[in-house]
Design a protein that fits this description.
The chain has 229 residues and is mainly alpha-helical. The chain has a domain of 123 residues: Alpha Horseshoe (Serine Threonine Protein Phosphatase 5, Tetratricopeptide repeat), CATH 1.25.40. It is built from nine helices and no strands. It is elongated and about 160 Å long.
Length: 229
């Protein structure tokens, strides 16, 4: 009985403290001015926006790591990173649709064909982005396209070049062996310009009076030119 009474008293004490805290909060809200309320709301919104940006950066990093893992052939790891990114990025967004396209390709590469087709159908039917729906439909069509079977008669055969060509080439080369090579040699042209520029004095010039008269006149003109300077 005493234990029961003690529990009831404790419950009443807790209720009283809760009422006091609530009344204090109400008084604080009443005393808060309009400017303070706006400032508090802005800080809260900035905090939420910062957290969302950090989450988006984390999702983008996981998406990029998943792409690298896919390129290296680690399809299981790529699936983990893509699915982790989708826990942050909403699926109906454009970025979410892009991640799902890569996830479907990783499913197919990891031998999860049914999961791949299911995801493509979901994107094709429900995603808000037209480009994502179109891309998913095209990829699904490629995977589900019927395989063409070509019979032996329909195959194109390329004939091999056999010994007939080799014998023809050998015969042609034998004919050419007997022929001596013909070289076209142009006759060397005479250097008339050099012969013209080389001065050859006439024979017996030392006995010619006209020659010495010309030399004397030239020397007189040169001497007069020096004197005039």
């Amino acid at each position: 009985m005493r234990m029961r009474i003690k529990e009831m008293e404790d419950m009443r004490e807790l209720e009283r403290k809760a009422e006091e805290l609530q009344s204090r909060a109400e008084v604080a809200e009443e005393e808060e001015t309009e400017e303070e309320r706006k400032l508090r709301m802005r800080k809260e919104l900035e905090k939420v926006a910062k957290e969302q940006a950090e989450l988006r950066d984390s999702a983008k990093l996981m998406f990029e790591v998943g792409q690298k893992a896919y390129g290296k052939g680690s399809y299981g790891r790529a699936i983990e990173f893509f699915e982790g990114a989708l826990t942050i990025i909403p699926r109906p967004t454009l970025f979410g649709g892009e991640i799902q396209i890569w996830l479907a390709m990783a499913y197919e590469a990891n031998n999860r064909h049914a999961d791949c087709i299911t995801l493509y159908r979901q994107l094709e039917n429900k995603h808000p982005s037209l480009s994502i729906r179109r891309q998913a439909a095209e990829l699904r069509y490629i995977l589900q396209a019927p395989k063409l079977k070509i019979s032996q008669e329909e195959m194109v055969t390329i004939p091999l070049i056999g010994s007939s060509y080799d014998s023809y080439a050998a015969t042609w080369s034998d004919k050419d062996k007997d022929k001596s090579p013909v070289t076209n040699q142009l006759p060397s042209s005479k250097d008339y310009l050099a012969d013209f520029l080389v001065w050859r004095p006439p024979v017996g010039f030392e006995k010619s009076g006209a020659f010495w008269a010309t030399i004397t006149l030239w020397l007189c003109l040169v001497g007069a030119a020096f004197l005039l300077q």
